[in-house]
Design a protein that fits this description.
With 249 residues, this protein is an alpha+beta fold. It has helices at residues 18-33, 38-52, 78-90, 94-101, 117-126, 159-206, 210-224, 228-237, and strands spanning 3-5, 11-13, 58-65, 68-75, 104-107, 131-140, 143-151.
Amino acid sequence: MMEKFGAEGISLSSTPAPSHLRAARLVADLHQRALYDTSALLSDLIGTAAESVPGARYAGITVTKKKRPSETAAASHHYCVLLDEVQNHCQQGPCLTAAGQQRAIRIDDLARDDRWPLFREKAIAETPVRSILSLGLLKEGGTAAALNFYAESPKAFDDASADLGSVFATHAGLVWDLVRRDQQFRAALDSRDIIGQAKGKLMERFNIDADEAFNTLKVVSQHSNTPIARVAKRIVSGEVWPPQSSSGR
């Protein structure tokens, strides 16, 4: 059987093991059960990963964005969220590094690992977690993510853990991208609806047609350097009213 090695010298078997087949079946089942709820799919996938990867007790997804604090996209336990908050506070940690560099990172004993000293000190003080396995999930533009596994005992993870974890990381990356696209789609629909309501108010107030109403929104948006959907929301709520339409009526 041939082997290949990933980051940190973790071996990745080229021959599917029974655990991989079970993981694939679990993921397929999750897709069927959460077909119309992508957020639930991501949450279920993380829970399944935490239960399936050898040595893991908890699992979570860390998402990083340029010039913004990292976020916890999904978590099976509040320790995952807390450790992301610690990394934000310290501006360092294995999950941030795994996401940014898109590689696998393993901590066998947090008390003895000195790669992220500020994170280590605060993480040990605030959680019982001692073993961490972080796997780069995806990187697109200024956004990156990592799938993380945690355990309270030292040396909880081995090559088999990393191997199966990478399977879940692949699926989690696809699902997380699906969740993000679903959120963008819903936001676009909400924006279209609120813009339509704002146009209606402007048409009634100024006795103008739909095109002129939209032009009014654009003018206010440009002059105030505010996204047009936000201008529309303020108009619908009655918070702001342009003094006149773009046509001067």
